[in-house]
Structure formats: C-alpha cells, structure tokens
Amino acid sequence: MGTADGRPVRAGRGRRLDHQRPDHRPGRQPGLRAGLPAGRRTPRHPGALRRDVLPHRLGADVGDRPARRRLDEPVPRPSRAPAGHAARRRRGRPAGGGRLRRPARPTARHVAVRARSRRHRRVHRGGTCGEEHPLTVQVGLIWDAVGSVAAGRGLLEAARGAGLDTFLVTDHLIDVFPRQAWDTDFSHLAADMPTPDRCLDFATVLGNLAPLAGPVRLAVGVTDPHRRHPAVLAQTALTLAQLTERAPVLGLGAGALENLVPYGVPHDDRVGRVEEALRVLRTFFSGEGPHDFRGRHFTLDRAVMGLPAPEGRTPLIWLGANQERMLTLAGRHADGWLPSDLMTPDEYARRLAVVRTAAEQAGRDPGAVLPAAGLPVVVAETDDAARDLLRAAPIRFLALHAGARAWRRHGAQHPFGEDYKGLTELLPHLLTRAEVARALAAVPDEVIAAQVLAGSRETVLKRIGELIDAGLRHPVLIPASALASPQAARFTVESVGWLSARLRSGSDVEEVAA
C-alpha cells in the first residue's frame, strides 16, 4: 500500500512499518546476532549449529525469541501514550468501552526472567558528575598459540562467527604442560603435536590474524617487559594497530619464570620493571617525541616513536595483576585489569575495589579500567559429565598451576612445596614423568574444582553471572575442557558460542518451573 506518488504509507509518528523498510528481509529480526557477517543465517533452534562448519565456526543461540535491545544501546524512555481510540486498545480496554482486563498473573519463570533482566539493565555510576553508563558485558576467547597458525585462524573465525569481542593469544617460550609426560595418555592433542612446546611468537601470529579479525579486537594476554623492551612492545602494538579495525590490546604482566630462567633473562624487581614499562609505553603512545626517561631499569634519551596510531586505534594496555602491588599499578596506569587467578565473586569484588581505589587516587576515572578475567571453562552436557572431565590428566594438571596457599584452603599440601606460588614459578620442562604422575595423584578433587568453572552450560553461565554481579565486565573464556577428548573439544567450541550469545545479550536466566 502506498500514496499516489508511490511512496510507502508511514505508520504512527512518521516511522515505516517493518515490512515497508527498504532494508527489510523477511524472517530477520533487527538487533539479533550482532557482529555476524552480513548474510549469515540464524539457526532456527537454540544452540542449533551447523555440524559441517564446526569447530571452525560457531553459531550464536537466538532461537525464535523476539529481538532484544543490544547492551550498548541506551534504555529507551517510555513515551506518553496518545489519547483516544488507539490508547484504549493499548491499555487492554475494548475500543467500544468496557472494563479494563486484568493482566495475567506472572508465573515463577516470568518472575525469574524479569529479575535477571533487571540485573542486566542496571547502570553503574562513574566519573565525577555521576553520569549513568549502561551495563555492557563483552566476551573474549583465549588461544594458547601452540601448534599451527591454521588452528588459530580457525578459532578466530569461530570467535568472529559467534560475535565475540576479543581474541587473545598467549606469549610463551615454554608451554605450561610438561613435555616429558606429553603423550596420548596425557592428552589427545599429542597425536598431532609431539611436544607441547611448539610456542608461536605472539606478534607474528597477531599480524597474520589481523586481516581475518574484522570487528574482533586482537590482544596478547600477556607478555612481559623482561624479554621485550617497552619501546619494542610499543612499536609492535602500534604496528598491529595499522592492520586491525579496532585498537589492539597489549597485555602486560610480571612474567613467568618458565620464560625467563631457562634463557638467562634478568628478572629482578619484576614489579618495579613493570611499573617503569607502563610509564614508558604511555609516553610512546602519547606522541612522537623526543622523549626522555630515567628509571632503574629503562632509560630514554631523546627517544622517538615516529609510528602514529590510526585515529581511534591507540593500543590499549591491560595488566595481568593478582597481588596488591600489581593491582595498584592496574588502577594507576592500565586500561584493563586481566587477573589470571580464578576467584570467588567476593574476592573478585575486593580486588576490583583495590584497582578502582588506586585509579581514583591517581586522579583517573575508576570506571575507565575495564574489569576482565581469564576463566578456565570445563563444560559438558550435564554437571556429572563435567565432573568426569575433571579426571582427565591435562585438566587435573591445572590444579598444579595453583599455589600452595590455594591448596591449604582445602586442607591439602602442594606436592611442589609449601612456598610454591603457582604458575608464575613453575618450570614444567624440568619435571620428570614420574614427578608428574605423583603430583597428579596428589590432586584433591576440591582443588581442581576450585580452579575451573565446571558444569553444564547452564551451570557455567550461572557461575560467570555471579562474577558479573561482583563487577566483571569482560569474561575471557579459556576452553580447558577441549584438552580432554575430541568429543569434549567439539562440545566446548559449540558452548563458547552458546555462552557468548547469552552473556552479551543478558539472557543468562535460570529456568524455573512454573
């Protein structure tokens, strides 16, 4: 239907009906599957993914639900209903008059949905003026950058297809798993990769992935200023910014001994070196120079950085911080906080408060530091199936990445000693096969369960939701259950898309029986 001159009739307040819009496509709902490439079809049923494209593609679950408001859009203000005939119909009253119909009594499930929706529509206040910011949850995925670059490309393609926000690669010279125990009895991955130590250089890999990333932000999570001078790190990040659509993330940490001790890299005063590196990086990101800096570890003498960042793509700095001094540095200097420890929601909130207090004391907006976290996920069809996966050797070995203090909380003694501080002190390439076997036998079930988010998709989603309530805004998923078996790997890859779709849309709702 149209006017005499062929223009479509507009409905109410000058807006076209959906089917009259020139860009309308039947069966496609606006706002769904944000971030998917143009023309990607939506699965008909929740979690219905094309098996022929997995694990290199992920599908986001949208089902047949109506379109949801995207989290980055402002909450629409209710408008005054127009008076008259239309208003009476809108209020549920018959056009010809009569009594107002009583709305249906909500079921228990409806109450749960509304409560969860309210939580995701909440706003937090930041800055000095108390302005409101809509709650936004972003989701990332970590790849360990071991093996073939083709595997990384496939995982990035899956992340992009699922609409993930960030794709992180790690930076290691030696892998976190012991080479002496690496065989098909330890992990199915050993069939195609005879050693876990085929670690790829993060900078070269990210440059190779840049043309495929599209709207996905690329990141290293994390490197250190011991092996790489901050001037070199700044040049790497600024170079990557020339190749990507979004500003890349330079993740920085205090360094793990496995990447330092075997190669004779100086690592005294590791936190002090990180602090100076943060200041040098900020200096180089601020302009060409020349720049001067005098520190204990780094010196600049009229140093220049002539490579500018493209407009809007100045690299971001995320700090891998777990302890008080590093948490303070995150608040003072970083754009994001990326702890490697898996914490309870209360502990996450406590450490986030340290970060934000440090930011405020430095004259920064506490809300300017993005709260992220690396979350190891062990996901299966059911909670019982996930508990079975915890018996797999590579997943149990994750318990050995925890320090002696974490073991003592469960009444257990760490096989690597009472002073062992965890992964940053581990030298896995020196462990013998017998030592690995004894250490794995000593792992209590309670310790491994505390080091991962294990359960069904719904259980894992609930656990992440509890951390979001504590302040988490960027969960970065570590697909740990993919180490257990090929079948577990496939389900894990599918589950990343399932989890991402719900976290980003805010629909992590517990199904409650009516």
UniProtKB/TrEMBL annotation:
Domain Luciferase-like intervals: 151-474
Residue ranges of the region described as Disordered: 1-129
Keywords tagged on the record: Oxidoreductase
Signal peptide: none
GO molecular function: oxidoreductase activity, acting on paired donors, with incorporation or reduction of molecular oxygen
A Pfam entry, by short name: Bac_luciferase
Comp. bias (Basic and acidic residues): 15-26, 49-75
Biased composition (Basic residues): 86-125
Protein name: LLM class flavin-dependent oxidoreductase
